[in-house]
């Protein structure tokens, strides 16, 4: 469903930012296919947190306002299947950076493309 909504919006000329965990190559490829079908350029961004203690704190402190959404526990986060990236993409390590700094990194990367 998310792929279709993104594609429809791209075809309307809108900018689309998808925010999802894409630990598998197949899901990353699917998002790139959406952009290709819509005839637009996509930029992939991998967000990481190299500070394990801070990452765990963030995971355990999360709350949701979506009824019925079960957030993953720390053990699920660290044990999920993950395929390393094998193509060009932007990496943002959020450890020690503010939200504003991370946004600036993405904007600069967009301008470079």
Describe what you observe in this structure.
By secondary structure, this protein is mainly alpha-helical. It has a two-stranded parallel sheet. The protein is globular and about 40 Å long. The two termini are 28 Å apart. The model has no long low-confidence stretch (mean pLDDT 94).
In whole angstroms, the N-to-C terminal distance is 28 Å
How much of the sequence is in beta strands? 5-15%
Radius of gyration: 16 Å
Q: Which descriptor suits the 3D outline? A: globular
User: Roughly what percent helix?
Assistant: 40-55%
Secondary structure layout:
Layout: H1 2-11, H2 25-38, E1 45-48, H3 52-61, H4 74-79, E2 90-93, H5 99-112
Parallel strand pairs: 1-2
Short note summarizing the structure:
This protein is 48% helix and 7% strand. The chain has helices at residues 2-11, 25-38, 52-61, 74-79, 99-112; strands at residues 45-48, 90-93. Helix 1 packs parallel to helix 2 (25-38).
Question: Main traits of this protein?
Answer:
mainly alpha, 113 residues, globular, 2 strands
């Amino acid at each position: 469903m998310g792929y279709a909504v993104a594609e429809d919006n791209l075809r309307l000329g809108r900018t689309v930012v998808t925010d999802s965990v894409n630990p598998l190559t197949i899901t990353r490829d699917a998002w790139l296919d959406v952009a290709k079908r819509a005839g637009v350029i996509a930029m992939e961004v991998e967000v990481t947190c190299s500070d394990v203690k801070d990452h765990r704190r963030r995971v355990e402190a999360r709350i949701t306002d979506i009824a019925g959404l079960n957030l993953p526990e720390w053990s699920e986060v660290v044990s999920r299947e993950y395929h390393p990236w094998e193509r060009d993409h932007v990496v943002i390590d959020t450890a020690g950076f503010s939200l504003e700094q991370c946004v600036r990194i993405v904007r600069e990367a967009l301008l470079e493309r």
